[in-house]
Amino acid sequence: MRVMKMICTECLAIATIRKTNRKHPQLADVYCSCTNVECGHSFVMTVSFSHTLSPSALKGQGRVKELIDAMPEQDREKALEFLLQAKKRA
Ligand SMILES: [Zn+2]
């Protein structure tokens, strides 16, 4: 797995991530410090979600299956009743 590398905006040396302030699942402020001792620049980068390349397996059916798998046996019976009732209404 590749790890994202931050580059100092002043001297282009590798910067260390000191802190991540996650504002939203798709947006974070990343606090960085330059590793070049002669530079010493500390700065904040914004990392944001851009677009999906392959959809999550947890969307739609995957999410429902995950929920059902996590349910105790007796709750599954109850859930089945709810689903059958909902199907009748539709
Ligand atoms: Zn630097």
Account of the protein in words:
The protein has 90 residues and is an alpha+beta fold. The protein has two domains: 43 residues; 34 residues. Strands 1-2-3-4 form a four-stranded antiparallel beta sheet, with no helix packed on it. The chain starts with 5 loop residues before the first strand and ends with a helix. The model has no long low-confidence stretch (mean pLDDT 91). Bound molecules: zinc ion (ZN).
Topology (elements, then pairings):
Elements: E1 6-7, E2 14-24, E3 27-34, E4 42-48, H1 61-70, H2 73-89
Antiparallel strand pairs: 1-2, 2-3, 3-4
The protein binds zinc ion (ZN).
Short recap of the structure:
The chain has two helices and four strands, in the order ββββαα.
Note the main sheet.
4 strands, antiparallel
The percentage helix is 25-40%
- The rough form would be described as rod-shaped
What Rg, in angstroms, do the CA atoms define?
23 Å
Q: List ligands, each type once.
A: zinc ion
Q: What order do the helices and strands follow?
A: EEEEHH
Number of helices: 2
Strand numbers in spatial order across the main sheet: 1-2-3-4
What is the count of distinct domains?
A: 2
**Mean pLDDT rating:** 91
Q: pLDDT under 50 segments (min length 5)?
A: none
Strand fraction: 25-35%
Structural class: alpha+beta
Distance between the termini: 46 Å
The count of β-strands is 4
Question: Characteristics of this structure?
Answer:
single chain, 90 residues, alpha+beta, 2 domains, four-stranded antiparallel β-sheet, rod-shaped, binds zinc ion
